[in-house]
Design brief:
The complex is a heterodimer of chains A (516) and B (407). Chain A is of the alpha/beta class. Chain A is built from 17 helices and 20 strands. Chain B has 407 residues and is an all-alpha fold. The chains are: A alpha/beta (516), B mainly alpha (407).
């Protein structure tokens, strides 16, 4: 039986200090099969795969590749065994072409025969249905093209086993569909594929079998055709869950922030936002959808006073007064004191909003350290606030003085949102609030946002997962390359509609793109 | 096909002999003992090196260190200890307090500590102030200028105060210039502060020639040699602390250490420094003016460096030359890093560095080695201390032994 298994892991255990990342994990992947690896954050999926790709070495346990026991001591060993891993963050040289990146680091003659390389790449593209220009430079590529380069890189080296770490997190629904087609072709070709993902829909659509990890332990493997979203979630979480996001009816809807004709450019003078007109209402959740980098970040930063504009106005209308105020020209501090809270979560969670090396108390002080006596800081009230947040939101931390950098992603998020909510804002802006969070924590965050909405707060939710946007928000604005391609009612819109709007903003501009 | 050959090759691969694994939750006590062990081991290695090179035995080395650093074995100390033979402990302390080498060690450690303390606020802000050397020299130059030109115009107390203020102002300006450039144009502070050192050195050389007192050798020489105007009194507290004590250095720097500790840990300014150092984006988000924090912090850093120059010129060398600062601006960087920017740890490391450099110089001379040998010895000790960090954060796992015997 083992002979037909491309990969077989037997009782793999890996610890980091006192943290057990993988405990006694056994699983197998057959040739010509797509296996989904499912688990919440910190359940040890990536650690397990890193042991296959030679980044970590297991503390105990055995790995069999094609039925033979192997020791994978380095990424090179892993390559030699025909294992290729596509990481979440691409490892490509921006200034090189696709073909140059693909042959980079390969052994052989000093002079590379580029023609032969390109021919081989084109052959692979044809075989599996990739679309790639081998001479295109990486910095000119979209995210999906870069991913294609990474996949071909592994195939070029003769990989028979492919591991993809959350490949769809950065793709539009259309791009995801293309990727799945390619993966299915590879399966037919007899390759073994492991895909790590959080999205259950994709798991069900794509894979043959699903293996589930929970807190580093192996829960079990099921055939996909016997599984449902609910059954898989229960395996992951270990208890019964409901998967419906609640959407309370908006109350007391009034314009809170009015954005008029706003345009802004980045430091190279390239337009990032073009003529944005938008009204954010109280008592509503406004979703913002779009491919990463379409101007979402800039829009929120403009409202928060962190980014300067070329033209336009942002008006803030406080709840208990008719006097509206212009926000542009005000400092971030003044805007925050008006009650506009930005719980901003950039790509790097700790990059803005929190100080990684400080404990919770120190991070609470970020908002309050100016109060109190003239020269000295007051630590008592932030400490109390931290304790309250730990209790109310169930933050898991050894101690409130533990640096927040050491907390898991979900807990960091809770700390950030907890602090912003504690200031009882009138506008709460969140970006990628649930990025990388597991299901349970995500639902806690959705719940928190709904609570704010019920209180009459104007909530802005910049999100990636279209299913969630459609289920949580009242309205969804779609951004595409810095322009609004439409504002839709979330109760009636569909995923396909949003996906199309994300890639093209209006009829005229679309022509140029399609001609290529 | 090709796979088969690959497999037969790979099956020869064995588990690696030694692997590095992260160690988490090392207690402070354990970390302290690892450090201590490293220091002891480094001493053993140093003694071994000395023995191999010169044949000097450890006891000879120890007596050289003791004599140089504390004055043990000198006739003066022996006399005092003999006079108090009824209570040896009192005799020991009285001997120590009246011993010149002991006070010299204190003085050097305090000046080193002062510079390390000065660099710390900037480093906490991730502003790599490598210009301590220049800031010290400018402080010293300002002190010397006041000593030369105002000695007969001001009362002794006023003279000292003017010297103090002048040195602080000079160091402050030397720290402020790169800070303004960093805040306004985001220039690289490491290179900028480094280059400012050379300007300071050249200025000192220039004034050494202008104010030359040796008739052409290019040295200022001892300032106010006869009147001692602007010199620190060295016989404070009468005979109890000996006739050449450096109690002023000790008190000034210790008070400063406590102040900087409080400033960094418990004030709004200190909080802002930590935030700016960790993430400028977060600082902007919190409404902190990064420019203001950079400029303010570098003023403090430069000012304290200037003060160190004052302590050097007024209280130690009584002249200004290009090597007055003796690389303290750079050595203090090591002190600040070894202490992980904790002011109280800096007291310990300042003494350690001074023990090392002064002690190893003495060993080198007594054992017939040259100056370079003292650098080798210092290097060995520092190597061990820095390497010990690795063993605090990581552990080695050997083949076949599983990781379970971790304490």
């Amino acid at each position: 039986m083992t002979g037909t298994n491309a990969i077989e892991l037997k009782s793999i255990t890996k610890t980091f200090g006192s943290v057990v990342a993988n405990k006694d994990v056994s699983l197998s992947v057959r040739k010509g099969e797509i296996l989904s690896l499912l688990g919440e954050n910190g359940s040890g999926k990536t650690t397990l795969m890193n042991m296959l790709s030679g980044i970590y070495y297991p503390d105990s346990g055995e790995i069999y590749i094609n039925g033979e026991k192997v020791d994978i001591r380095s990424p090179k060993d892993s390559f030699d065994l025909g294992i290729g891993m596509i990481h979440q963050h691409f490892k490509l040289v921006d200034l090189f072409t696709a073909a140059e990146n693909i042959v980079l680091g390969m052994k052989g003659k000093t002079k590379v025969d580029m023609k032969a390389v390109v021919e081989k790449i084109n052959g692979l593209c044809e075989k599996y249905g990739f679309e790639l220009d081998p001479y295109k430079k990486i910095y000119n590529m979209s995210v999906s093209e870069k991913q294609t380069v990474e996949i071909i890189k592994t195939l070029y080296r003769g990989a028979n086993i492919l591991i993809l770490d959350e490949p769809t997190a950065v793709l539009t629904p259309q791009e995801t569909r293309t990727l799945f087609k390619i993966l299915k072709k590879m399966r037919e070709d007899g390759k073994a594929i492991i895909i790590i993902t959080h999205k259950l829909m994709e798991v069900l659509e794509l894979s043959d079998r699903v293996s589930v990890l929970r807190k580093g332990e192996y829960v079990g493997t099921v055939n996909t055709n016997e599984a449902t979203e609910l059954s898989l979630t229960e395996m992951m979480v270990g208890e019964k869950v409901t998967l419906d996001i609640e959407r309370p009816e908006p109350v007391d809807v009034n314009p809170r922030i009015i954005i008029k004709d706003v345009s802004c450019s980045d430091k190279n003078g390239i337009k990032v936002l073009d003529n944005i007109n938008l009204t954010v209402n109280s008592g509503e959740i406004l979703g913002i959808a779009g491919i990463a980098g379409s101007g979402q970040k800039e829009l929120l930063e403009i409202v928060a006073g962190l980014q300067s504009v070329d033209s336009g106005s942002v008006t803030y209308c406080p709840p208990d007064s008719d006097k509206c105020q212009e926000l542009i020209g005000k400092s971030p501090l003044q805007i925050r004191n008006l009650g506009v809270a930005l719980s901003f979560v950039p790509e790097d969670r700790l990059g803005m909003g929190l100080v990684g090396s400080m404990g919770m108390t120190g991070n609470m002080m970020l908002r309050s350290y100016r109060s109190g006596t003239k020269f000295f800081t007051d630590r008592k009230s932030p400490k109390k606030l931290s304790e309250d947040i730990v209790k109310q939101l169930g933050v898991v931390t050894p101690d409130i003085s533990t640096p927040v950098r050491r907390l898991s992603g979900g807990n960091v998020q809770k700390v950030l949102i907890g602090r912003e909510i504690a200031a009882s804002p009138t506008v709460l802006m969140t970006a990628y609030a649930v990025r990388g969070l597991d299901i349970n924590t995500s639902y806690t965050i959705y719940h928190l946002l709904n609570e704010q909405k019920k209180k009459g707060v104007a909530v802005v939710y910049v999100g990636e997962d279209l299913d969630v946007l459609l289920a949580l928000c009242d309205k969804i604005m779609v951004l595409c390359s810095g322009r609004i391609s439409g504002i839709v009612d979330a109760r009636s819109a569909t995923k396909e509609q949003l996906g199309l709007m994300m890639t093209k903003h209006s009829e005229e501009t679309e022509v140029g793109d399609n001609d290529k | 096909m090709t796979n088969n050959s690959v497999h037969s090759k790979s099956s020869h691969l064995k588990e690696p002999l030694i692997r590095v694994a992260r160690r988490e939750g090392t207690s402070k006590l354990a970390a302290f003992f690892i450090k201590l062990l490293a220091i002891v081991l480094s001493c053993v290695v140093c003694l071994g090196v000395i023995y191999i090179l010169t044949g000097s035995t450890p006891d000879k080395v120890a007596s050289a260190m003791g004599g140089e650093l504390f004055g043990f074995g000198t006739r003066q100390m022996n006399n005092i200890m003999n006079a108090y033979s009824s209570s040896p402990l009192e005799g020991f302390f009285r001997g120590l307090l009246s011993s010149k080498p002991f006070w010299r060690t204190i003085r050097d450690a305090m000046i080193m500590l002062c510079v390390a303390i000065a660099l710390t606020p900037a480093f906490k802000m991730r502003f790599w102030n490598t210009g301590g050397e220049g800031q010290i020299l400018m402080g010293g130059l300002a002190t010397a200028t006041v000593m030369i030109f105002c000695a007969d115009k001001l009362s002794p107390a006023l003279l000292i105060i003017v010297m103090l203020l002048a040195s602080i102002a000079a160091g402050l300006v030397w720290g402020l210039i790169p800070a303004i450039f960093k805040a306004k144009w985001n220039t690289n502070e490491t290179l900028f502060t480094l280059m400012m050192n050379y300007i300071a050195i050249q200025l000192v050389l220039f004034f050494n020639i202008i104010w030359d007192t040796t008739g052409g050798a290019g040295y200022i020489g001892m300032i106010n040699k006869e009147t001692h105007a602007g010199w620190f009194p060295t016989d404070i507290a009468g005979g109890f602390l000996g006739t050449e004590n450096y109690i002023i250095h000790l008190l000034t720097v210790i008070v400063l250490t406590v102040l900087v500790y409080i400033y960094l840990g418990y004030t709004k300014h200190g909080y802002e420094i930590s935030v700016v150092g960790e993430s400028e984006n977060t600082a902007r988000y919190a409404g902190i003016s990064i420019k203001r924090v950079i400029i303010r912090t570098m003023c403090i850093s430069g000012a304290i460096c200037g003060l160190a120059g004052f302590l050097l010129v007024a209280g130690s060398t009584h002249t200004i030359a290009k090597d007055t600062s003796d690389n303290r601006g750079f050595t203090a960087i090591i002190v600040a890093w070894l202490s992980k920017f904790n002011p109280f740890m800096m007291i310990f490391y300042s003494f350690l560095i001074v023990f090392l450099s002064n002690g190893s110089k003495e060993i080198a001379t007594r054992c017939g080695l040259n100056e370079a040998a003292s650098d080798v010895l210092t290097g060995i000790v520092l190597f061990f201390i820095i390497a010990s960090d690795f063993f605090i954060n990581y552990r080695l796992v050997f083949r076949h032994k599983t990781a379970k015997e971790e304490k």
